[in-house]
Amino acid sequence: MAHSHHGGMSMSDSSGSSSISMMPASEMTMAFFTSQHTTLFSTSWTPGSEGAYVGTCVFLILLAAIFRSLAAGKYFLERRWLDQELNRRYVAVRGIPTEAERIDSDMDSKDVSLISERGVEERVRVVRNIRRTIPPWRLTVDLPRAAYATVMAGVGYLLMLAVMTLNVGYFLSVLGGTFLGEVALGRFSQLEEHGH
Question: What is the dihedral of CA 39, 45, 48, 49, to 10 degrees?
């Protein structure tokens, strides 16, 4: 009976039948290693040279930095959506004649068109809501927010898979990209985490 070991599985091939047995957990070692031929994400992405390995590491650095920039971008989006929500209140003002009505009632004025600082309808004013409440569900906000969160999760999982290869170069590349992204844009993601 001939046995061959491949990827932690033992396969026997005697009389055309094969059996697969898994390696016991006690024999599986989780240790970092250094290899320039570690597959990343798919078998077609296996660096075959030192240059390809360096290119893969640079890609991981950029991907980790992009992940940190996505966190900073989320801060700006959330801030914009909150400002829009707080400024959505419109109040009709009674008793104050509009500039257009004043001109119409003045006999000495000529026919003119007037747009004031409050727009054409001067009796409506925007009032800022200073109380933070849970905003209502809105397609124009919640759909982009969900798409953005999905992209962030996808990039995060790709980085996790790169680290799970246990390749030292890949691991250090992810850490390096995280560091660079945090140095450049970390102050914005910190504001989002603290709710400022």
Answer: -100
Q: How does pLDDT run along the chain (196 residues), one tens digit per residue?
A: 444 333 444 444 444 454 555 656 566 668 888 888 888 998 898 899 999 999 999 999 999 999 999 988 888 888 888 777 776 655 555 666 665 566 566 665 555 454 555 555 555 555 566 666 777 788 888 899 999 999 999 999 999 999 999 999 999 999 999 999 999 887 776 655 554 4
- Contact between 123 and 92 (Cβ < 8 Å): yes
Closest CA to 126 of 176, 87, 165, 70: 87
Q: Which residues of 28-61 are buried (b: 16+ CB within 10 A; e: fewer)?
A: eeeeeeeebebebeeeeeebeeeeebeebbebbb
Residue type, 182: E
Report how far residue 78's alpha carbon sits from residue 182's, in angstroms, rounded to the nearest whole number.
Answer: 19
Round to whole Å and give the CA distance between 181 and 140: 29
Q: How far is CA 92 from CA 103, 127, 154, in A?
A: 21, 10, 46
Name the pairing type of β-strands 3-6 and 9-14.
antiparallel
Beta carbons within 8 Å of 142's beta carbon, 6+ residues apart: none
DSSP string for 41-108:
SBTT----SHHHHHHHHHHHHHHHHHHHHHHHHHHHHHHHHHHHHHT-EEEEPPSPPPHHHHHHH-TT
